[in-house]
Amino acid sequence: MFAQSQPDPDMLDWMPRLKTRHGLRIIVGGNEARELIECRIQKFRLNDLVNASISSSFVLIRKLDLDVYRLPLDISQALVAEITYIKNRSQVIDLAEQRGIRSILHTDCHSTRVQLASYGLKEDGGGEHGSC
User: What Gene3D superfamilies is this protein classified in (predicted)?
Assistant: First the structure.
């Protein structure tokens, strides 16, 4: 698993700019083992990007548990209407949407960027440009 963990350089390049421009709070969640999460955080320098990381191995809550959707809201002190959930698994996206959480199925940087732009989250005031 450690060797299979690969960064998405386009997302890692683009998201910090989007975060800075819009003053976003970014919380990352996952069901992986503690050691794998810690490895990814260090290897991909996620502490430079995210405000918090929630792993089921840290908080003992699995993704399909309702509390896994509530915990990021509590940590960020955000309202449901203020967040966008981004995940690469449609089953988890469906569950988030059933809970009233606006969600994006991440397939690649470009499509995620376009979807976020449709919510008004563009990197700049103009058109779509950049690495993805």
Answer: HAD superfamily/HAD-like
